[in-house]
Amino acid sequence: MRRLVSLVIVIGVLSGLSISGNQAGGGRTAGPLKGKTQRVRFARGRTTAVLHGSVVRGTQDRYILGARAGQAMIVHITSPEKNAVFVILGPDATALDGAEERTDATDWTGTLPLNGDYSIWVGPTRGNATYTLEVTIR
Predict the structure, then answer these.
(1) Which domains does the chain have, with CATH numbers?
(2) Does the pLDDT value for residue 134 go beyond 50?
(3) Is the pTM of this model over 0.85?
(4) Can you tell me the distance from the alpha carbon of 114 to that of 120, in angstroms, rounded to the nearest whole number?
(5) Residue 92 contacts residue 13 (beta carbons within 8 Å)
(6) Residue 35 carries which DSSP code?
(7) CA angle 37-131-78, nearest 5°?
(8) Among residues of the chain, what percentage have pLDDT more than 90?
């Protein structure tokens, strides 16, 4: 039940993210978030996963990955029109410093504070965005 409550809080917080609110037209998304949710799987013996996607204005893609406290994580996103950004949330639904809403993060490196599932939310700053997301865990 606690996990469900945390998820509901995360969805409520993320519905106002700058990745959906700074688009041309200016409005924030209303209602449930749309986009894909995918668990990140690392190939055997690999520490980096490369993910490709596209997000439509007003949506966010969500990537979930399990990690341990003390591990280093590196996240990098590129997009042809330089309009894809991300937010990273820890297992406690708190955004990681430097990858919070409205920071328009495209690169983040840090040591993870908690054990559990981390969420990377990808969205466009304007229009639609095609992107490549690289996630490394060491």
Answers:
(1) 2-137 (2.60.120.380)
(2) yes
(3) no
(4) 15
(5) no
(6) S
(7) 125
(8) 75
Range of weakest confidence among 5-14, 49-58, 113-122: 5-14
Q: For 79-109, give the secondary structure using H, E and C.
A: CCCCCEEEEEECCCCCECCCCCCCCCECEEE
Contacts of residues 26-31 at CB distance under 8 Å and 24 or more positions apart, as own/partner, are 29/58, 29/59
pLDDT digits 0-9 by tens, 29-61? 334 568 899 999 999 999 999 999 999 999 999
Find tokens 């949710």 and name the residue.
37
Buried b (16+ CB within 10 A) or exposed e, 97-122: eebebebebbebeeebeeeeebbbbb
d(C-alpha 3, C-alpha 17), whole Å: 21
